[in-house]
Amino acid sequence: MTGVFVDSFVYALGERKVLVQETAEAGRLVSAPSDLESAGFRWHHICEPGTGSYDLARRVTGELAATGRLGRVDAIVYATCLPGNANAGDPGEWERSRDVKHLMDFPAGRLQAEFGLSEAVVFGLNQQACTAMLGSVRLADALLRAEPGWNRVLCVTADRFPEGAKYEQAYNLISDGAAACVVGREPAAFRLVTAHQITNGGLGRAGDDETVGSYFSYTHRLLRETLDRAGMTPADLDWVVTQNTNDKAWQILARLLGVDFGKVFFSSMPDVGHVISADNIVNLVELLATGQVRPGQRLALVMAGFGLNWQCLVLEATDAVRAV
Amino acid sequence: MRGTTLITGADGYLGRRLAATLLGRDEDDLILTVRAADRAELAVKRERLAAELGPGAMGRARVVAADAGRDGAWADLDPRGVTRIVHAAAVTRFNVDRETARRVNTEGTARLLALAARCDNLQRFALLSTLYAAGRRRGDVHEERLPDAGFVNHYEWSKWAAEEQVLDAAGRLPVSVFRLPTLVAEDDDGRVVQYNAFHNTLKLFYYGLLSLVPGDRGTPLSLATAAFTTAAVARLLDPATGGGVFHICPDPAGTASLGELLDTAFTVFERDEAFRRRGVLRPLPCDRESFQDLLNAADQLRAGPVHQSLSSVSPFAHQLYLPKTFHNPALRAVWPGYAAPDPLALAEATCARLVASRWGRRTEET
After folding, report:
1. Which of A111, A130, A279, A310 could in theory staple to A305 by disulfide, Cβ–Cβ 3.0 to 4.6 A?
2. What is the tens place of the pLDDT at every residue in A86-114?
3. Do A135 and A37 fall into the same domain?
4. Do A202 and B277 touch (CB under 8 A)?
5. Is the domain of A67 the same as that of A171?
6. Measured between beta carbons, which residues in chain B are less than 8 angstroms from residue A251?
7. Whole-number pLDDT of residue B366
8. Which residue numbers delimit the Beta-ketoacyl-[acyl-carrier-protein] synthase III N-terminal domain (chain A) (predicted)?
9. Fold of B4-180
10. The total number of structural domains that make up chain A
11. How much of chain B is helix, strand and coil, in % rounded to 5?
């Protein structure tokens, strides 16, 4: 159990909500739309041409600011799935000038300046793919342990697929989106119980089928190791908040792990698809909105991503969860 | 006395090996029937068999076109002089559709039995069947006629139905049923020429495309080589050997379990640097419901190779939840030199060959 708390979960999605069939007709899928629909996908969200990933990050940070939850932060961990989204600069400027500073227009710095977070230092996290949001919380916990004078870390993830990209990865329908949360020392809605990550660089260039193929064995291992770290068993989990992927995947994993499938929560999937590294936050927000999370309950947030990376957080709801 | 042995499906995996064995062992002439759409295809197959059986073979062997799946397949064949018939022609894919399985495997056997009935000097009619004619039955399976226990795929059903026809003829014809195991290699050195569900499943594991394994780890899996199987069939065709049902497989003590075979396979895989570098984990055993969910999910992965590979494996996978022990005292009684391959040594040699050749895609280093 750490002395670190997590709350203030927010997310934002690409402005345009599109049916999977429309995206198929636009030639932006790999699979047949019927296959994605059978897997549980229906809608997804795509940014308008003028909207970049940084704009999504601004929206989630702006929501925290507008609701009084941003406050003073000592660090910003800015996580992206696509490394290109860690540069807010204009690629055209680089092409014209051949000046590499246009490749170093860091969105975390922009965020710091735009929201007046002048005390905050910035960290970029861009090699954990879809697991980066969970990784940012883990990094925030480590930073707070290493820096006794720090109290709060803002974790932000934002990704937007490049124009012309297929909006499908490893058989998942993708949404552009962002998410944020605050990790701090003051008691908040959730205490961070433990965090765990597995990276297998040997599968770093895995194809879609290898990614899918490794999903069960590695996710199973991730959960077992995470629970071992926390001295817990699957029966100790009250909720498993997953990524949005084929709806059969967690039916299988729940059986393998001995977790009641009724505890597995990914309600946002038909409406938002796979929001890159924001899925867990989107689903957690929806779970909180149901009012079913009680103080003392323990939740596992689980994500698999390219790289290949797998990450898991275990959170314990505190009394403050009632106010969320 | 010199006779004539008719082998159907003689250009198939076992058919051509059996033809070669009989040519070397007996004095019989051979009639080798193959499926050929026209004269040109027949000529190609005849040439290929001649090359495989050796230069002198065609003096004793005649290659004739016959499609087991068609009416009158062997109607034109002169039955006089045929003393033995080995029915090897069959569709052996686990995912064969019911109509094809019925037409080729079941009705094809009936057509051949009609020919057998016209053979005045017939000494043996042998059907090459499968151990999995036992279908959904669990537990001990003996060398006897099997009840209809239900089947996990149409292939099994069609072979059981073919057995029924052959065994129904037992009062009129000198029939035998040879139930074969899963053939995984040419001989004990593990060389693989023909790939089946066994090899395809291992391929999925090696390439990290499947991290669940269907079945109970304790399920016995009867594996053998083409050399062992062919030798057994040749032995059972000996005129001194009586008819009946024979399990051409290792005895229960010499049969490895699914878990043992998987452990052996992964021990071999993990010796391979490329495999180790990819960090592929050993697969997790899953229950039937989960495996069915996986198959349903794979139906939505049609854009990739997993879907196709799984579809070839899945019709057999259900057998892995139905443990059976195949007994073979009848085989051992008539084959004094019986020596089945050691299952784990065979699995190890086969896996090593599969890894070295990347499932036949590259030339093995010797």
Report:
1. A130
2. 999 888 899 999 999 999 999 999 999 99
3. yes
4. yes
5. yes
6. 290, 293
7. 42
8. 127-201
9. Rossmann fold (3.40.50)
10. 2
11. 45, 15, 40
Q: How would you class B50 by CB atoms within 10 Å of its CB: exposed for 0-12, middle for 13-18, buried for 19 or more?
A: middle
Same domain, A113 and A129: yes
Q: Are B124 and B174 in contact (CB under 8 A)?
A: yes
pLDDT tens digits, residue range A219-240? 999 999 999 999 999 999 999 9
Cβ contacts of A217 on chain B, cutoff 8 Å: 211-212, 280-284
User: Positive or negative, the Cα torsion across B96, B98, B104, B109?
Assistant: positive
* Contacts with A218 from chain B: Cβ below 8 Å: 211, 281
Work out the angle between the directed axes of helices B197-206 and B343-357 (0-180°, nearest 10): 60
Task: Give first-to-last CA distance, chain B, whole Å.
Answer: 44
Please give the helix or strand (H or E) that residue A153 lies within, else none. strand A152-159
The reply to whether omega before A173 is within 30° of 0 (cis) is no
| Nearest-CA distance A184 → chain B (Å) | 36
AA identity, residue A275: V
Q: Are residues A103 and A239 in the same domain?
A: no
Mean pLDDT by 10 residues, chain B (366 residues): 91 95 90 94 94 85 92 88 96 93 97 95 97 97 97 97 97 96 96 92 93 94 96 93 95 96 98 96 94 87 74 85 97 93 97 96 65
Same domain for A128 and A222:
no
Query: If you ran DSSP here, which 8-state letter would residue A128 be given?
Result: S
Amino acid A49: pLDDT: 94
A285's enclosing H/E stretch is: helix A279-289
Compute the distance between CA of residue A121 and CA of residue A73 in angstroms, rounded to an integer. Answer: 9
pLDDT digits (tens, 9 = 90+) for A107-156: 999 999 999 999 999 999 999 999 999 999 999 999 999 999 999 999 99
Q: In chain A, which residues have their Cβ closer than 8 Å to the Cβ of B201?
A: none
Residue of B211, B276, B277, B288 to mutate, interface with A, max A Cβ within 10 Å: B211
Name residue, tokens 């592929």: B280
Let me know: does B249 contact B354? Beta carbons within 8 Å: no
Q: Which two tokens stand for residue B199?
A: 């090899």
Q: Are residues A232 and A138 in the same domain?
A: no
How many CB contacts within 8 angstroms connect chain A with chain B? 96
